[in-house]
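User: Hi! I'm a student and our assignment asks us to look at how structure tokens line up with a sequence. Could you show me two examples?

Assistant: Happy to help. In each example below, the sequence comes first and the structure tokens follow. Example one:
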Amino acid sequence: MFKRTDFKGAWGLKGPVGALAVYACVLFPILHIMFPQAQRWAPYIYPAYFAMVVLLLVLTRHTTWRHLGFHIENWKQNLILGCLAGGLVIGVIPLLELFIGVSGMAQSELFSGADQRLTLEPEGDASFTAFILPTIFIVLAEQGFLTGYVLQALIRNSKPALAVYLGGLIYMLIHFDFQLGMFLLGLTASSFYLLTGSLVAPLVFQVACYSAGWLLAQHYPKVFTLLGFLF
């Protein structure tokens, strides 16, 4: 039985909806229509906006870090939950690689040329260090805003099960990524937040999922091809 920290935020839906509207109606069109050349910075600009909103809420005392879910209450339980779920996602990758080789699928036309992906010249630094440092910032900002702020308001103002599904949909729409993998990531992170009342498990799980995506792109081209419809 999981120990859950109660949600103590006092904000309603007006603030989260307004912040999402600014993102969808102002920031997103500016980057993708008015300044398309700036799209390469979009993965960092969007989290910076989320971080700015959360920081502004805390500085103006509309909420606290703890009320958003940034706390260490029951941290061992929540860390284990995030690590187990994230470890499962990462652990499946080499198992699928082994299955592709043992089953003979590697010889099929589907995987022809898959290994050439690793020989292509990468854009920028492809090291794990260069990947993980900005990823941690992105995940902190996204979880603080999307889960701690937006999802918590949905949980407190609607049925929790509905809020979790809406959390998955919002996560998919925010990233403008309509693949199943992004929806499942948001759905799982939302479920962990509802279950624990903490952002620890969602944070660890999302970092693990992004790390799995890096592994697929850098070291497992056949699995990347197999799971292309997800990622």
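Example two works the same way, sequence first and then tokens:
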Amino acid sequence: MNKKAEIKMFLEFNGKSINFLAMNGEYWIALKPICDVLGVVWKKQHEKLQNGEDIYGELSTDQGMVAADGKLRNMTSLPEKFIYGWIFSIPFSGTMSDNTKKNLKSYKLECCNLLYEHFHGSITGRKELLSIKAKAQIEIGTCMNTLDPEISLQLERATRRLNRINQELRNLDMEVIEEEKSLFDTI
């Protein structure tokens, strides 16, 4: 095992612990324990990975991890950033128990809610900031036309607000750029 690797608890899920491997600044999570916790048949998911039916087969690799029996085993794993999408990609099947379907459905709905909140929040947050910026620019223009002492004070305040808003917009833009760049890190 790599000298920089260590195994830690990943999460508690349905009363069971799922471990991960921290290696070179990246967290690798074994897939079989997740299937076990969700009640999904591991063999079918493993075949799907091996057959290259989706992107996760290319991204997965065997990592030495401690299995449920306490022994060190090579386990098919994914980096943490792909785990959530992989779970989302698990299809419902007629052989799944009602409880498994319920757990998987609950997880998928939570994923949808989080994706919506992330993207919707980014879009509406930017629109709101642009609207506030436009109002501030109009206020500055008005002040510039009438430069008496009270208006000068308003101008100074509006300029400060505008500068803060511009900084927030730059920060949001940088977050979006970093997220988009990370999409290409695995290609």
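Here is something you could point out in your write-up. The longest strand covers residues 5-13.
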